[in-house]
Amino acid sequence: TTALLPASLDLDDFDYTRFDLLEPKTSVYPPQAPPRYNLALCRGCVYNCAICGGSAYSYKTYLGMDRPAMRSPARIAGDIRSLKAQGIFFIGLFQDARMGGRQYWQELFRELKQESAGIERLSLDLLVPADEEFIKAAAEIGPQVVFHLCPDTGSDEVRRKLGRPYSNAELLECVRLCHQYHIPVTTFFSAGLAGETPEKVRQTWKLWEQLTSLDRQALQSGDLPGPHGGPITGPIVIDPGAPAFDDPEAYGYRLRYKNLEDYVAGLSQPSWHQWLNYTTEELDTAALVELVLANVDFSTDQRARAGLYSYFEAAAEKLKTEADRVIVQEIERIMTLDDPLARRSSVKALKERHQAFLGSDLRQYVR
Question: Rounded CA gap, 345 and 330, in Å?
Fold first, then answer.
């Protein structure tokens, strides 16, 4: 038998910026947007989010890693120099630098400050709210710093069940501190977490409104340099190897796809709502789909109130969401057809109608 090699304890032996080996380069970054790339500060995690295949549980159980494997600040600085030399100036650093300890993130920030010239945006992950010392030090890197923070829900109870042990009050205080030091914060909300009920969803929307209000106040007072995109929302995926994948009932989930064949079959279906790999104790698939679309509608309303969408842009987004509702219903009808050829032709015709709708001037539908 072949002995398994031990897991790497650091990431310095690897090179993540060899774009000279890739063609086309747009296989890594979008073809019609400024080139951007994400660098990993580490592999592994100290947290145990229930749905995450990159949790501490997952790395220990499947990769034999008791702690995160860090990449040194000096190597990260070298990566950034390499990216800038290749014309990439939008850079994200994945994972929370605080997992490497105080000395690690302080050294990293010193390196980032030296390499900040020319970077148009440098995003940093916060897995839990940060204190003022960390935020102030990040602000000193340069004006292009943005934080990413994922509260996922406005319910402290649901968030604790997910594995993110902090409160709305701690989150809001962190965002206020970030604005005080002129750092925008992009937040992410998930739709369809275990434990969510209509009441819990309203708590999420209330927190969302509070975050939007903080952004608006910071923009008006000059604490933010320009309009900010606000919270982002989307459905969740329960990653294979995540705590909730291995023991779904303990975390309030029911899996629809439990192995690779199930996943391939599920993801081969024509509509995104068929790709959802779970239900919860509170929400079946239909309720999950409606929750996702309701969150998108709410996001559109918030962006319109914040001035990020014009009246017509907001109306167009609402039309797209309503079209999604119609498509989901139509796909469900099509999947009841016995004839496989009839199903395929019906799906093709529906796709063509949807593409024609999206390609049209949606203003004609707006009153």
Answer: 13
CA nearest neighbour of 59 among 99, 98, 91, 97: 99
Query: Residue 101, by phi and psi: left (phi above 0), alpha (psi -120 to 50) or beta?
Result: left
Are 121 and 90 within 8 A, CB to CB? Answer: yes
Look up residue 10 and give its amino acid. Answer: D
pTM for the structure as a whole: 0.90
Whether the bond into 24 is cis, omega within 30 of 0: yes
Give the CA distances from residue 213 to residues 206, 218, 230, 305, 346, in Å, rounded to whole numbers and listed in that order: 11, 9, 10, 10, 45
User: What tokens were used for 44?
Assistant: 């592994």
DSSP states of 129-194 as a string?
---HHHHHHHHTT-TTEEEEEEEE-S-HHHHHHHT----HHHHHHHHHHHHHTT--EEEEEEES-T
Highest averaged pLDDT of the listed ranges 27-31, 172-176, 307-311: 172-176
Query: In 3-state terms, the chain is what percent helix, strand and coil (to 5)?
Result: 50, 15, 35
Token pair belonging to 133: 């010392």
Q: How far apart are CA 280 and CA 198, in angstroms?
A: 13
